[in-house]
Protein 1
Amino acid sequence: MPENPPAAPVDAKWTEIEHLPEWDEEFYHVYTAKKHGKWLMLKTLRPELKGISEYEKMIEKEFEVRYNLAHPHIIMINDFEEVPGLGMCIITDDVYGDSLAKLIREKKVTDDHIYKLHHQLLDALDYIQTNHLAHHPLDSSRVIFTENIGNLKLIDVGFDQKNFLTHADTAEDIYNYGVLLNEALDAVETQHPRLRRIAARCVNPDPSKRYPTLNALRLALADKRERMLFIAIILFLLAMIALLLWLNSAFRPVPQIS
């Protein structure tokens, strides 16, 4: 059962604050609460770390870096403020639901979850890599399906930001995605042979035989219609580039002056 936080002065703004031990992180306790009647989630330093400059700066930096992120499948931060009884908290929208890890343990993974793993999760990973966002290694405990809608949300993204991502960074995402996908497929009744083959390539013991980029993985995951559209777009762009190069070359037609 969730634990109640220490007694605090009454604050009409904050109500129904409850500790969520299963969501706790290495340095943080996680709570759910209502602010002016709206459900939110709070993340604050563990009691033993409060007042220690190193950790106070850490939570401030996490807020500063993550505040500007904006993606429908990554948990967004919307404030950093003092909450009675808890201290300074990072405030996020309410994403209470079940982690993929829990769904796997309880054998409750559905085809809808699988679909979202190879669409919504790939979109989130693409955003991460495009914006050079550092993040904890991808695993099933960091993928959440919200309680009411079942929307996929990725947590713990953007604690730090890099000037560029190395090949090792992108390769790790692809490998971990394959591990996660295999775990989910083990827990669903429907057989997905194509997805099994894709997951197997992601985790191939020979790194040279894995997907080299996230775009290559996305193309493999796309269904036949999506692949044809993707290929058509690429061919169109290549044709436009070739046309521009030709028009700017010495071989372009020269207008005749009468």
Protein 2
Amino acid sequence: MSLLAAEILGTMLLVLLGNGVVANVVLNGTKGNNSGWIVITTGWALAVFVGVVVAAPYSGAHLNPAVTVGLAVAGKITWAAVPEYLAGEMIGAMLGAFLVWLFYKDHFSQTQDEASKLACFSTGPAIRNPFSNVVSELIGTFVLVFVIFYLTGSEIELANDASAKIGLGSIGALPVAFLVWVIGLALGGTTGYAINPARDLGPRIMHAILPVKGSSDWSYAWIPVIGPILGAVIAAGLYMFLLG
């Protein structure tokens, strides 16, 4: 499997399962309706686990432009590889969002609340304050990327590049799942913890394209892109500084 295909499939599964659990909780008439925040955060953690398991041996399973940029800033991957990672992550996120819509199509039709339907695609703030919302996404992603640097221990060789032995996949899927879980529980209450530009932007684009009524809230869309990228860059900078 190529790096591009691995990032597409891994991110597709991440979004299908992560946004799928949101749809199960918030859409009308589902078996999991109103099952709560703990179900959503647990579902997202397990979605990360599945995506990493699939993509790790082939791409390192970044599944997140912020992780890709953070690793590039720290010199763990080449900048030349970044566009392929970003393309795979965006395509995968859009495919995953489409599958969520297809799977829950009847329930989208039964749900009148536009905010609930948008939540099945992308994130939104509990209290709309652009500065505070950016800070929330920045801090959440900083924790994600900074801890990833220190969790990386054992190495795996990528199938298409024996010299590339580092990436998100090299830490194993389970620790990352726990990391995303605790970020959701502790830091997810303000913005819904996108902590991943592709996870938010790709599905938001699909919300605008698909026959789902309601605004895609483009005025907010820059926050889950800029905040995570800034958090990842700061995490990489601090990591390199501490290395001396």
Protein 3
Amino acid sequence: MNLDVFQKELEAEFKRNQFESPELESAYIISEITSVPYIELPLNRKRELTEAEMRKGREFLMRRLANEPYQYIFGWTQFRFLDLKIGRGALIPRPETEMLPDLLAGYLKRGASVCELGTGSGAISLALASERPDLEVWGSELSEEAFRWSERNRMELSPGNVRFFRGSLFEPFGGKKFDAVVANLPYIAWSERENLPPNVRDYEPGEALFAADDGFALIERAIQEAPQHLKERSALFFELGEEQGSRALDCAGKTGFFTRAAILHDMYEVPRFLAAYRE
């Protein structure tokens, strides 16, 4: 069977199961099983597929029909310039989170130190470390499953300036102080769980998505603890839920540590990040 025929077979199944973009869904699978870039698929329509490729394609189809995210099905995801291994137990990094390394890189001076709270797959820390090899990057992760993914990615990418530790928030760092702290902590209220799409709700780890107190509990705790672990001139960059900006600003102000704070927007013009500075 050639590529074109098999792609139409997959597309028909997605249509039958009322997926929104059957052609796109089938193209993702074909590209993955053949290693043919998505944009080059039309040039390879007559390519004959092996039995192994078709078997893998049908396996991927069944998993996708069950709403499993492609990142878990394929076992990898892209974050900025990195290809990261990923699977169940680690949050899939979102496009808006890619802005955090930019915010950090634009702030940190050469040779600075930064810690990430809740590293998950290690995406933020590894991207920053690979793009700024002069930095010292530390990360913490409470979940054993997520920590395994971050360590796997660290070992495969081999940046010499990153260290990951098991533990909650600042706990693994002891008395060390940093030039900046960054985090994409859970910020969704548990009451919102049933409103999420099934590929998120049923597959991604709840501890990386949801927090008490309308999703703000862990963020508030981290902001309150941050001054003990930051240097005299330093900054904090946190990803937030779009309704949490004013609360985050208030929380940062109440620490008495930060002298300036602002809510920054992501590429979709959504208020997404708290940037707080000690100047």
